[in-house]
Amino acid sequence: MYEPQASVGVRINREQPPAKLRDLARQAEDAGLDEVWLVEDCFWAAGITTTATALAVTSTIKVGIGVLPAVARNPAVAAMEIAALAELHPDRLIAGFGHGVASWMRQIGAYPESPLAALEETLLAVRRLLAGERVSMNGRHVHLDEVELVFPPASPPPLVAGVRRPKSLAVAGAAADGTILAEPAPPEFVRTALAGIAPGRAAEGAPPHHAVVTYNWLALGDRERARRTVAESLNPGSRVQVEGLPFASELLALMDSTSTVDELAAGLRPEWIDRLAICGDVDECAAAVRALHEAGSGSVVLLPLPEESPEQAIEDAARVAAAVRG
Known about the structure:
The protein is an alpha/beta fold. It contains 14 helices and eleven strands.
C-alpha cells in the first residue's frame, strides 16, 4: 500500500550519467528525503537498471520509477523485473508506468493501436502477476496465456500511472495505486486530476487506495532561474495542467501566440512562474509544497533545474523538506 503523507522527494534527471547515480542516491537518503525518483526516457539510461542500482546502495529511502512506457516491455517481463526488485528491497519500490512519448514509441516500433487500452491492460496484468495469480489475457494489446511468476513478491509494490488527460486519469483510478502528475503540477491541477481519477476509483475491482505524486521544478532563491525551464515544459500537451489557474486564459493565449521557447519564456510574468514552479526563499518554497499537500498530493517531488548541479539540487530539496516538516 502506497499512502505517502506529506512526503518530499527529489528526482534525478535523465541527463545525469549512470556513473553518478550511486553517489546521488546515497546523498538523497543521507539528506533525509523521503523518496528519490528516476526517469526512463528514450534513449537515456534504462529505468529498471538505474532503480536497481539506487535501491542497492541505499537502505531506507523509497525509490520510484517515473515512468516505464507501458508498450516498451512485455508485461510479463516487466512483472518479473519489478517482482525481483520488490523481493530484494521490500516496501521501498514504487513502479510507474505511462503511455510513453508517442514519437519515441513510433521510433522504436512500439506505438500501440490504442495507447489507453495498452496502459490499462498492462497495469491490470502486472498487478495480477505481482499478486501471484496465473494470468490469461487476450486484450487489444496484452496477450498472456497461463502466465504465473515463480517468485511473486511477498509485498507487491505499488503501481502508479504517469498520466494527465481525463480518460487516462480514469484508467489510473481504476487500475493503479497512484498517479504521477508531470511538471508543472500546481494545486489547481491536483484538484482537477483527483476529479478525473474519481470515476475510475469507483469502478469494481479498483485498488482501495490511491496516492497522487506531483513533479515540480525547484528554484530555491531566485524564480528567474526557472523561467526558461518552465517555458520548455509548457508544451501543447501541458494545457490541461494549467487550465485551472486564475491566469490560464492569458497564459494559454501567450502559448498560442509564441513560436519559440525564448518568446514564451520572455512573456511569462514573475507571478506566473511562482505558480508553475516551486521557487523563492526556503519559507516560500515550503509554503508552496504545503499547498500541494493540502490540495491532495501525498508526495511532492522536486526537480533540479537542468543547469544546476544534482548535488546542489538535492541539498536544496532537503532544505525545503526540513522547512516543510518544521
